[in-house]
Amino acid sequence: MNVFPIILAAGQGTRMHSQLPKVLHRIGGKPMLQRVIDACSTLATDKLAVVYGHGGEQVKNTIQDEHIRWILQAEQLGTGHAVAQANDVINDEDAVVIAYGDVPLIRSETLKALLARLNEADLCVLTTYLDDPFGYGRIVRNDQGQIVRIVEEKDADDATRQIKEGNTGFIAARGNDLKRWLKQLSPENAQGEYYLTDCIALAVEEGGNVQAVVCNNPLEVQGVNNRLQQAELERAYQRQQVEALMLAGASIADPARVDIRGSVTIGQDVSIDINTVLVGEVVLGDNVVIDSSCVITNSQIGAGTHIKPHSVIESAVIKAACEIGPFARIRPGAVLEDGAKVGNFVEIKKSTIGKGSKISHLSYIGDTTMGADVNIGAGTITCNYDGANKFETYIGDGVFVGSSTQLVAPVSIEKNTTIGAGSTITRDTPPGVLTLARAKQVTIKGWVRPVKQSGKKTKEETTDNKNEKK
Ligand code: UD1
Ligand code: CA
After folding, report:
1. CATH 3.90.550.10 for domain 2-221
2. 3-state DSSP assignment of residue 247
3. Where in the chain are all domains bearing CATH 3.90.550.10?
């Protein structure tokens, strides 16, 4: 039996009040639709369809996946109508699983349980018990407890509205059955729509075996219709991620104040203070300490490295025992070898910083290869850009660069060179000696400090030039 997931994602999502199609809104940094696709992709399947409509091109451009068959539902006439658009690609013997693109926390285990039940049934519905089932289709069961139909909120009478068991929207059925039921749907209901949920009553009328699989975690099957619900699910998702990290051995100062928008791999005894955001693929080695308010994106942090508050690290490789920040910015292509130190207000881009090298304050290092045990003084800038092209800087082992130096690339500072503070270095420097490039210091004897002249109002009238002539 071939498994065929069909994900409904054509609805507008009016209640989001957004230009972005609802299913592209994100949970944990990933579009909701992508989460549902990922969960469905774990079912042994080689085809998967997404029914799209509203914001169609935008949805297709954002979710780029060759395996998806995109099915257009030009007019949104209901969930049953949406599935019917896929009729031509549903084979009779397919085990079809219908999923909703706005239910982002669905897990593949739950979908597998729903699908497995199809071995003993003709139609399987995933349901859940809700404290407040408002808005959900209600599961109506007979005296024997068998499910007989689903009634939508807007079509329900008071007694039906009391039912706490809600329809999650996820169903499984064989292709030939589903196509037969879809043909019989009619829009005679409160919303004038073709309801997929009417398939249940049709199956029961035929004497089919309809079974409910109950999902015990309502959050997993909760749909997002507005931003409040989106935020609720975001928190639930974050809690899951952080719990997993803690159970894997991380110390998290406050589980409610760390956000993970991707996947994080940790060693032992990692510790993370509040307000840190981890994005994409992040790897944290043993004993890594992350202080408060850091943002780390697609990076590897080596064992024993300490990242101090307010540091931003993106697409970088930081090796062991480094010290970073506070207020450091490590940009894509940066590699810090063991024991490197990057201090406050330092920006590093596409550069290698050798073992034990230090850039402690207020510097920009770009397109640079730096050896080991280099010391870069405060306010040093690698001038890597002439307005049109980028150039590289080489700094050998053991170099000492005095404060407030500009290294105008392309330039090479050989091993063990000392550069005097305040130098503008435009040519390669020889190894092991002192190089400086700055104006000589002069002292003007007998110079008199300007004094304010009585009756004069503006500064401009007493210039430095006048004073020097005295
Ligand atoms: C639907 C169910 C309801 C269930 C609830 C769970 C029906 C009739 N109702 O109601 O029983 O409790 O979900 O969240 O099925 N869609 C389309 N094309 C359409 C209409 C909808 O693709 O013409 C898609 C939407 O993009 C969305 C999903 O189907 O992903 C559900 O649609 P929505 O309008 O949110 O249905 P509900 O009213 O929430
Ligand atoms: Ca919904």
Report:
1. yes
2. helix
3. 2-221
Which ligand neighbours the alpha carbon of 136 most closely?
1
Residue 45 confidence (pLDDT) above 80 = no
Classified as helix, coil or strand, 137 is coil
**Which protein residues touch ligand 1 with a CB less than 6 Å away?**
8-11, 51, 73, 76-79, 81-82, 100-102, 136-137, 150, 152, 166-169, 195-197, 223
In the annotation, is 361 catalytic?
Answer: yes
pTM over 0.85: yes
User: At 174, is the secondary structure helix, strand, or coil?
Assistant: strand
Contact 261, 51 (CB under 8 A): no
Q: Which ligand is nearest to the CA of 230?
A: 2
Cα–Cα distance list, 287 to 107, 143, 182, 301, 308 (Å)? 32, 59, 58, 10, 14
What is the C-alpha to C-alpha distance for residues 277 and 298, in angstroms, rounded to an integer? 11
Question: How many whole angstroms from 1 Cα to the centroid of ligand 2?
Answer: 29
**Matching residue, tokens 């910083």:** 353
Predicted confidence (pLDDT) per residue in 350-393, tens digit: 999 999 999 999 999 999 999 999 999 999 999 999 999 999 99
- What is the spatial distance between Cα 412 and Cα 357, in angstroms, rounded to a whole number? 17
Sequence ranges of the chain with CATH classification 2.160.10.10: 245-435
| Residue nearest atom 11 of ligand 1, based on CA coordinates | 137
The 10s digit of each residue's pLDDT in 300-342 is: 999 999 999 999 999 999 999 999 999 999 999 999 999 999 9
Look at ligand 1, atom 3, and give the residue with the nearest C-alpha.
Answer: 137
Q: Do the Cβ atoms of 402 and 394 come closer than 8 Å?
A: no
CA dihedral 326, 329, 335, 341 (to 10 degrees): -30
CA dist., res. 97 & res. 196, Å (int): 12
Residues 6+ apart with CB under 8 A from 427: 411
Q: What is the pLDDT of residues 90-115, one digit of tens each?
A: 999 999 999 999 999 999 999 999 99
All residues at 6 or more sequence positions from 451 whose CB lies less than 8 Å from its CB, including other chains: none
Contacts of 382-386 with CB under 8 Å at 24 or more apart are: 382/351, 382/407, 382/409, 383/407, 383/408, 383/409, 384/409
> Of 85, 100, 193, which is best to mutate to test ligand 1, by the most ligand atoms within 8 angstroms of its C-beta?
100
In this structure, which topology does domain 245-435 adopt according to CATH? UDP N-Acetylglucosamine Acyltransferase; domain 1 (2.160.10)
Report how far residue 85's alpha carbon sits from residue 54's, in angstroms, rounded to the nearest whole number.
15
Candidate list 54, 306, 310, 361, residue with the active-site label: 361
